[in-house]
Amino acid sequence: MKKKTGGNVLGCIVALVAMFFSGCGGGAFDEPPTVPNRTKPPKIQSIDLVRYDDCEEMNVEVRETIIQEMEGILSTYMDRCVYEGGGGDGVAYAQPDDESSEDAASFTDTNVQEAGVDEADLIKTDGIHAYGIVKEKVQVVRAWPPESFGMVANIEASEGKPDSLFLNDDRLILISTRDGAFLSVSNYSYDYEVPELDPVFVNVDIFDVSDPAAPLLLSTKKYDGELVNTRMIGSNLHVVFNNQLTKPELDYEIDYKLFPKCSSDGTSQPTRELVVAVEKLREKNMAIIDGLDFADIVTVPAIKKKDGCNDVLRSHAAFGSDVITVATADVTQSFNELDKVSIVGNGGNIYVSTNNIFIASDQNDFHEMYDLDISYDSTVVHRVKLGRSTLDYAGSNAVEGHLLDNSYIGSRYSKRFSMAQFAMSEYEGSFRIATNRNGSWTEDFAGDSMVATFSITEDDFIPDGSIWGLGVTEKLHAVRFVGDKGYLVTFKKVDPLFVLDLSNPSEPLLKGELKIPGFSSYLHPFGENHLIGLGFDADDQGDFAWTQGLKVSLFDVSNPSNPIEVGHRLIGSRMSYSAAVEEHHAFTLDSKKGILSLPLDLYEGGSGGSQYGSKKSDGVVLLNVDSGGDFETIGEIVVESSSNNSWYGDAKVLRTIIIGDDGDDCIITLADDGILMNRIDDGMSSLGNT
Fold first, then answer.
1. 216 shares its domain with 290
2. Domain ends where: 276, 297, 318?
3. Are residues 117 and 25 in the same domain?
4. Which of 123, 174, 257, 532 has the fewest CB atoms within 10 Å of its CB?
């Protein structure tokens, strides 16, 4: 929520330098050094985005950011120390056939957060053909009828490595990237050189697949930058990508022998020699910064190709050395770019409704530019309003705490870690966000989770209500907003499922709570009164708990004041895993047929606690889903059997699609080395693979 303060890291460092140079600890110098004069931007008193008046204003602000990033790094040197015989412990180093649609079968589409907002995935189908990314190509297979399963064509990206795709009627939109592969690396030596990187980019290819056997490339568009995420609403494609402002290579190398010996409690008292060395680095770096001109700093096409810097929005509460850009285009015929919005500032997670894009990033209050009372442990959210062909900035806000992060789970398959997007939601003019506040060593605060609500207006979103104190001392693991209800899962030793009533956004209410062993990392609605939870079982060890095998739970939330775990199923032992615990696209539910499909790395034989199981297989498990919550096995597909205990095997299952008609149900499996199809019967009969 919009508040006010400021931190003055630079002032603290200057004061510390002055203290040591004035004779502290014996000896004295003629006069304390001074930080070179520079033009400073005015204090910022709002987190709302504004436009630069001109490029000189942007130049001053970017320079200040570079200086303050430098000061933040140098300030850490004052807390460094070396343990006896450490040889560098605690040391800071240098930063180194014509078909009719009537012939199509019913199928499970990509599991998305919001109806009407499509999300790019690794595989898509129209009920007749399936398009799946396998290694560096898109395989096109005939998927229905099942007897016709087989390869039809291969599609290659015009540039880059395929990342994800959309299927919009007879248009296949292929998103490809290059993520900065090394071009050259010097030999490892004392004078190690940072490898040169390929420039990163996001490439969009639009193919006409009205004849799937002969895909036709219609148009292509390349954006310089790193892919953040994409969405498609109707025929409008929204691409969110990130650029880094080009910054000078500054010097942070310092002789570790200058760092003092660590005391018994690990604290450090900087010496005068260290202070002098840090000040010399500062002076050297400031000379480099002073020698820059604007063209050296800003080399971002999103800025340079526009009419001027006044077309770029600046974020002061999440200010950084990045430019996050949202671009929208109509893909009906070919790539027709409609609008673009660029924001100077860091951006990480996005949530998209049919009306708005919300961009969330961690607060980055490491310098003295702000006059804002925003906690360092905060999340800043910017809103971009979606028009038919326009993108309009429509407000910013800050919320204490940070979004959930499921990358800790293991990150065996995905780099997306998509669960964080579920911590944000829009419903009937209200924006809801759930965050987790870290505990504090200095302030007797154990940490907790919260939900804040905002009223969405034409050009802003205004703080409305909030509720704190959920899951004290515990970590936020899963969030799902369904209508006017909110569901949060936190975990330390047991899984508290919190049920919130958000029908009055100004007064969010905690209605009920359920504590059970284990935790869910993903929650999925099942009918009007149930939730499916996917996560891990846990073995309580007193002060903590060991995670165990996979756990699938069914929760009855028909009475918000008394949520009940109807039933659950434990799968495998410690180290068992599913791609669906880290990315929701891998969770496939056909609610009408009562079939849940999960990619599965199965480990067995673990005896509880910290004892790992042994690898049995990689594949797919299909479970029956009904109100009983038993999750009985319907069938299994083994893609690879192995006794190798490595987390990284050769054939991993990434996605599944359930497809069929008139009781003839099949499953399409996308593994990292091909596409398989099986009939869902007693033997899970194979229909072929690519």
1. no
2. 297
3. no
4. 257
Structure tokens at 131: 């398009």
Provide the edge-to-edge strand list for the sheet that holds 545-556.
519-526, 530-540, 545-556, 564-571
Closest CA to 36 of 320, 366, 291: 291
SS3 641: strand
**Considering Cα of 299, then 301, then 307, then 308, what sign does the dihedral take?**
negative
Same domain membership, residue 92 and residue 104? no
Do 120 and 219 belong together in one domain? yes
Q: Which residue shows structure tokens 């609610």?
A: 591
* Residue 68 within any structural domain of the chain: yes
Same domain, yes or no, for 107 and 217?
A: yes
Residues 6+ apart with CB under 8 A from 641: 616, 617
Domain-terminating residue out of 297, 331, 359: 297
Cβ atoms of 155 and 140 within 8 Å: the answer is: yes
Residue 310: φ, ψ to 5°: -75, 0
- Phi then psi for 13, rounded to 5 degrees? -65, -45
- Residues whose CB is less than 8 angstroms from the CB of residue 52 and which lie 6 or more positions away in sequence, other chains included: 58, 61, 309, 310, 312, 314
Whole-number Cα distances in Å, 267 to 73, 81, 92, 257, 262: 18, 7, 15, 16, 6
Same domain (yes/no): 210, 104: yes
Residue 264 lies in a domain: yes
HSE, side-chain direction, 13 A CA sphere, residue 58: 30
Q: Supply φ then ψ for residue 91, to 5 degrees.
A: -95, 140
Structure token digits, residue 65? 């950011």
Instruction: Give 39-89 pLDDT, tens digit per residue.
Output: 444 444 467 787 777 777 777 777 777 787 788 788 878 777 765 443 333
Domain interval for residue 22: 9-96+248-297
Q: Is residue 427 situated within a structural domain?
A: no
CB distance 505 to 447 below 8 Å: no
628 domain residue, yes or no: no
What percent of the chain shows pLDDT beyond 70?
Answer: 73
Token pair 């599913």 is at which residue? 578
Is 92 in the same domain as 107?
no
Q: What's the confidence (pLDDT) of residue 443?
A: 58
Name residue 236's amino acid: N
Angle between helices 9-21 and 272-290 (to 10 degrees): 130
Instruction: Give the Å distances, CA to CA, from 264 to 261, 267, 273, 441.
Output: 10, 8, 22, 19
How far apart (Å, rounded) are the C-alpha atoms in residues 19 and 31? 11
The total number of structural domains in the chain stands at: 2
pLDDT band at residue 640 using 50, 70 and 90 as cut-offs? confident
Cβ neighbours of residue 265 closer than 8 Å, sequence gap 6 or more: none
Pick the residue with more confidence: 485 or 380? Answer: 485
Please provide the distance, in angstroms rounded to a whole number, between the alpha carbons at the two ends of the chain.
52
In 3D, which of 463, 662, 686 has the Cα closest to residue 3?
463
Output the pLDDT for position 584.
93
What is the DSSP secondary-structure string of 156-181? --SSSEEEEEEEETTEEEEEEEE---
Amino acid identity of residue 689, one-letter, is: N
Pair (74, 104) in one structural domain? no
Which pLDDT value is given to residue 537?
A: 86
* Strand, coil or helix: 138: strand
